[in-house]
Amino acid sequence: MTGSLWLSLVLSLAIFAQFQVNAASNLVCFYDSEGFQRQGLAQFSMTDMELALQFCTHLIYGYAGVNADNFEMQSINKRLDLEQRHLAQVSSLKERYPHIKFLLSVGGDADLNDGNQYIKLLESGQQGHKRFIESARDIVRRYNFDGLDLALQLPRNKPRKVHGDVGSAWKSFKKFFTGDFIVDTESETHKGQLTSLIKDLKAALNQNDLLLSLTVLPNVNSSWYYDAPSIAPSLDIINLGTFDFLTPQRNPEEADFSAPMYETVGQNRLGHYNVNFQLEHWLLQRVPANKLHIGIATYGKSWKLSKDSGDSGMPVVTATQGPAPAGPQSKKEGSLNWAEICQLMPNPSNINARGPGAPVKRVIDPTKRYGSYAFRAADENGDHGLWISYEDPDSAASKAKYAKDRNLGGVALFDLTQDDFRGQCTNDRFPMLRAIKYRLL
Length: 441
Hints:
This protein is of the alpha/beta class. 33% of the residues lie in helices and 18% in strands. The chain has 14 helices and 16 strands. The protein has one domain: TIM Barrel. Belongs to the glycosyl hydrolase 18 family. IDGF subfamily.
């Protein structure tokens, strides 16, 4: 074979390999098992799970926790996981869906047993790390999962007011660099400890051909805790929590886009509160793009508007009063699932409603750069004001296209139980999941 023919063959194989990477984009589906215990329309059944699995490449079961005394991984809901055998019930689906990888996640903001046990785990040394690793591997193997997901609950960035004049922005800048915003003075030490833990954990899991994924939770400063070039070879998947940059709990007095695609300009907003910045942080550290997954939330963040918030709805919205009341299904202040948001849009059943049932005004972002929002101005008594930053199937599909265009591993959906899995709005079950999958094909 001539040299030119060899060159042509090599180039053809390279192009084919690149096509394969693009064509095999992952859709990592997070499943918060709490959804199985909800009541009414919010209750997520195994039948719902099986419909969703037609679209997923990975299913991540959430969540296990860490025992703060002995650093072993443990169930944080023994009644559901063990007594009702839900862990085994979910992992048994592997038999019918052999193409899907099932992983068990630890942390994920669900582990409330001790607020600092993950830092304590890092500081526990070789003995503590060994106990965690052995217990994690044992649980994963016992329940026939394909691997482990680390969604470690590490200290978060302190929330900062993003709106204000140049003077206030300069004060925030000075505070950041003089230490007022430092939440962990030992972060460099913890970074090294976490690197060791990840490498040792992967070595142990490799003995049983098990996967290891990392989920970076929202507002955890990646540069403080993750030595990206050192840990990337030990990780099969990296899921970035690229949402909840602003929330009514962290930012009660002003509302803004909670998961913009790119930096939002004006009003002295912070430049790192966007998907693109967070992704570039990892790519610039030579982490392979095909290991990275951007996170998309199936819920929106909701603020309560006051009379002083005005009636334009245009963010940044000031004079907000923290989280809006919980929705009838998700029952969590400041958060609404997609079905709840969709049903607040004008429709025949609410067009003449007043008070908390009145429709919201929907404002779509035609650029796909920042996100959509919806709002209802407070009434003359200052009541029933509502502002929501959210994803819808269109914006989720746009982010999936971004992931595909950047040759990323794919998308991580947080989570299945917050999508409109019953088709309450359009009779189309799992509309966000479907929209993402079709754009990744």
